[in-house]
Amino acid sequence: MMLLRQIGVALLTALVFGMGLTWVALENGRLFGAVSVGPWRAWTNVGLPHPDPYTRAYIAETGALNLGSSEGLQFIATTDSANRTLDRGCRYRVTGLTPPARFWTLMPAAALDAGPVTPKGAPTHLVSTGLARDAKGRINIALSRTLAGGDWLELEGPGAFTLVLTLYDPSSFSTLGSDEAELPRITREAC
Q: Which residues, given as ranges, of the chain have pLDDT below 50?
């Protein structure tokens, strides 16, 4: 009887540890194939023909159709640069430089059951070719419920959202994961 109890405890411990490690890998991922630059996170092995098990678990969890490794890379931010969850009731500013890419898009998104993030008829995303930049090439994009000057994406509805920055042109990702990599800051201005 004592042996069965010890086996049960060992199996339960292994199950809890394994599931906990998998949860940490999917939530954070830095030790398991994800690269983080500020609030932005990308799974660099998503487009490979045979990704590692943690990347496969991430793909299964998100259910997203991801770009192939020769097509580009998608960065996702669920928090601002101060590590606060992105909220549709707040006003944000996305500023700074983007990695060199032939083309990129920036889109707010939410879970399917959370409703649309942008109002019907309003732009759902911004593209690199249609943005104003300052003299140093930096972007300055507002995300809010109320009109803002310059480049702006209107938000609607309650709850959290994510920002998806998709870069097209894999040759521009040579600095990814290094201290030189730079992605735009996400600053909460007001709530």
A: 25, 28-31, 178-179
**H or E stretch covering 41:** strand 40-43
For residue range 65-80, list pLDDT tens digits in order.
565 555 678 888 999 9
**Nearest-CA neighbor of 163 among 68, 93, 102, 72?**
93
For every residue of 7-22, DSSP letters joined together read: HHHHHHHHHHHHHHHH
> Do residues 73 and 170 make contact, with C-beta atoms less than 8 angstroms apart?
yes
Concatenated DSSP letters of 78-123: SB-TTSPBPBTTSEEEEEE-----SEEEEEEE--GGG--SS-TTS-
Among candidates 170, 172, 190, which has minimal Cα distance to 181?
172
Strands 185-190 and 91-96 turn out to be antiparallel
pTM of the predicted model as reported, rounded to 2 decimal places: 0.71
C-alpha 38/C-alpha 155 separation (Å) is 23
